[in-house]
Model the fold of this input.
Amino acid sequence: MKIYVVYDSENGHTEVLAKSVAEGAGQVDGAEVLLRHVRDAQVRELDDVDAIIWGCPGHFGTISAGLKTWIDKLGYTWAKGKLIGKVGAAFCTTATVHGGIEMTLWNLITPMLHNGMIIVGLPGNIPENVMYGSYYGCGITCPVEESADAPPNLPTESDLALGRALGRRVAEIAGKLA
Ligand SMILES: Cc1cc2nc3c(=O)[nH]c(=O)nc-3n(C[C@H](O)[C@H](O)[C@H](O)COP(=O)(O)O)c2cc1C
Done:
């Protein structure tokens, strides 16, 4: 089955997380993963995939403009019901713990529900999630760097384990449905 991972990222934090999601999906037997920065993603590519995982940096508690602009190209896809029954999941990064992670994940999930997709989150019995509580998808905090030339505070290994867990879970469920 095909898993489509599309993400927005201005400074690389969400991109690293997106790669971990794609890696996790690719660990499932039979999964073919398509990973796209939103600038390279084509709406028509969604027609024949089994699952879509999209993510972005949280901007003021909601979807970044880059990804939202792309999602808003789904009108024809919605009208034709092309995403109905496909598996969906979301991921995001924000700079602060209380900076709107869950709001952003919910806002990412909403258009999936409008398109008839089957939403997958991360339950508490997934080992990587026991202490994290990222139930709505994968939401990661990447604190603001101390200065413009400081190395980026990219997702940690624990964060990436969570991203892989989300990708694996989506691919496993998409495989069962397929
Ligand atoms: C316009 C804008 C709005 C943002 N709003 C928030 C916010 O409300 N809460 C927060 O914690 N971080 C906020 N951030 C920070 C980003 O979510 C955070 O730095 C993210 O990890 C960047 O990911 P990227 O490097 O993939 O673009 C905002 C950043 C920008 C540019």
Summary: The pocket of flavin mononucleotide is lined by residues 9-15, 57-61, 93-96, 99-100, 142 (CB under 6 Å). The chain has a mean pLDDT of 96. The longest strand covers residues 87-94.
